[in-house]
Amino acid sequence: MTDSLDYAATVLRRCDELAAFSEDEGRLTRRFASPALRAAGEAVREWMEAAGMTVRRDAIGNLIGRSGDANRRTLLIGSHLDTVRDAGRFDGALGVLIGIACAELLRDLPYAIEVVAFADEEGARYGTSYLGSRAFVGCFDEEWLERRDADGVAMRTALGRFGGSPDAIAGCRRDPADLMGYYEVHIEQGPTLESQDVALGVVTAIAGQTRATITFSGVAGHAGTVAMSLRRDALTAAAEWIIATETLARETDGLVATVGQLTLDPGVGNVIPGRATLTLDLRHAEDPVRIRAGEELRRCAEAIAASRELAVEWRSHATPAVGLSPKLTEQLAEAVAATGQPVVRLPSGAGHDAAIVSTIAPAAMLFVRCAGGVSHNPAESVTVQDVAAAIDATTRFLELAA
Ligand code: HGY
Ligand code: MN
Ligand code: MN
Questions:
Q1: pTM
Q2: Most C-beta atoms within 10 A of its C-beta, which of 66, 198, 261, 336?
Q3: 29 with 142, same domain?
Q4: What range does the domain containing 245 cover?
Q5: Residue 87: CB within 6 Å of ligand 1?
């Protein structure tokens, strides 16, 4: 295990180094196609090359390190380098860096390893998640290139400035015939492993997600002169819908619903909001439940808008729930058991690139305990011992997968 502890210490040190690549002063924010993401990618490129890998960046900005001959079957190990706003330093980066460590530790596998640092899993900049892995599997929607971020910068422009190739994204698509499978190590981002005092978890499934952008449009007006009975206030309509959303989620077993963003226009204290734009993140392990809830919430938004003489626009995209590969998952469970760790199996409420890559290759995921289950928060943390256990289990898994 000594080797693993040394490599684990390096992984944690590198997570700290990557945390310095941020768009924000004093906190970690590293969004798709940002200069911070590019700089982080250049540090990762160096570590991949030091591990003996050949490195390339594809048209959407995924960084791909390969060890093993070009004509060999390939096992992918991946996660993402982008983050949410004011993020923790392990969500995504940990999986990329453990992949590099294991590729360095196992130089003579009978197949090639590719470590993929995906360019956008969170969707924090353009509201569309998994841009990197969707391009990787060939389901990128070219219309997304016209989306604009909060500063009005189109994705096409940002990607061009980043050094990507907006007109060559179709070329990112990987041929499933070349791939043995996909494997991702990720912090649990939940309390289960800690509650059972266990370092590692074998992931059984990934919950499905619906992400929507909803815009209520009313009439902006003077806060002092428009009678309450005459108002078409976009914010109060949104507020009524948000409470209805929370109520539905509280009453539906296993459903979680989050409104994470709300922007008002014109957003001035003495003006009745004319427009309210908000995001919905809706998740459930079973797709029919999530889809039904999404339809009910859309009808609810339309009814609230109609009752208040407002207009409402609903834009959404979904990622189905994913069952992971039984074969690879059993091999992973065997690898975890071989390290002497208890084998705990659990579903993932969080989304991961594995949910997308599993559409072209059998996928498996390993969770690592994180303190208090805290994530999407700078307090996110892991221990060097648990990271060493993850490296130990991963090297055994890679040997079993041969
Ligand atoms: O939101 C998620 O589930 C993931 O962290 N992107
Ligand atoms: Mn995340
Ligand atoms: Mn993540």
A1: 0.89
A2: 336
A3: yes
A4: 208-319
A5: no
